[in-house]
Design brief:
With about 220 residues, the chain is of the alpha+beta class. It contains 8 helices and 8 strands. The radius of gyration is 17 Å and the shape is globular.
């Protein structure tokens, strides 16, 4: 118990940083009511995660939960969707933070274009340079083991994912990277949606796409 209290006291600053990200998501209409969850890895075995059933934009730092990598809840009312977070931390050694939100336009793409495997990245240079690709993860019922299992084929290669008919999930080597990834998903999805409404999507030339993908490889794995 003493170790747990120390973890909570030492990581109030991280909790406040998570709350700030939640407020940004709320302001961008990517969180509503008690939606979404955010976590940060504290050390090899302990994860700080937002609670279940609470509006994430109006949290207090003492409402957070601490869980272990093997899904033990040490403190608080941990998010019911924590299995997604745990799968990422287990399979992505570089993962320090995970953000799950409900960006409306990205979700709408997964509903209206259910045959798509990735967001149409070849239309938009910023998607290729910032993410590479943004895949659609097959639908899983919220709160079930499938939420984590369906992520497995995409890890650790992809850090920005759209959860079909549900939301989006990003991870990064910092909380800021995970936040940037979520903002990138919705911003890109909105541009592509508007282009579709204005007359349809058009791809960049094949040689330009190849060059952009080479540039992405040189940039590295991080979300921009």
């Amino acid at each position: 118990m003493h170790e747990l209290n120390d973890l909570l006291l030492k990581n109030k600053v991280i909790a406040e940083q998570i709350i700030e990200v939640a407020k940004r998501l709320y302001a961008r209409n990517m969180l509503a009511a008690a939606d979404g969850n955010i976590s940060v890895r504290l050390n090899k075995n302990h994860i700080l995660i937002t609670p279940s059933g609470v509006s994430k934009a109006f949290l207090n730092s003492d409402e957070f939960s601490i869980i272990t990598l093997d899904n033990q809840i040490l403190f608080g009312n941990a998010s019911s969707e924590r299995l997604m977070h745990l799968e990422i931390y287990k399979r992505c050694p570089k993962a320090v933070a995970v953000v799950h939100a409900h960006p409306p336009t990205a979700i709408a793409w997964s509903i209206a274009k259910s045959d798509l495997k990735v967001l149409p990245s070849e239309c938009l240079s910023e998607v290729i340079l910032a993410c590479g690709d943004i895949p659609f993860v097959p639908y899983a019922r919220p709160g079930t083991n499938e939420m984590g299992n369906h992520l497995i084929p995409f890890l650790p290669d992809f850090r920005a994912l759209i959860l079909s008919r549900h939301g989006a999930l990003t991870w990064g080597e910092s909380l800021d990277e995970a936040w940037r990834g979520m903002e990138r998903i919705e911003h890109s999805a909105e541009i592509l949606w508007k282009a579709q409404q204005l007359g349809g999507l058009t791809n960049l030339p094949e040689n330009e796409i190849a060059l952009l993908r080479e540039m992405r490889q040189k940039i590295g794995e991080k979300l921009l």
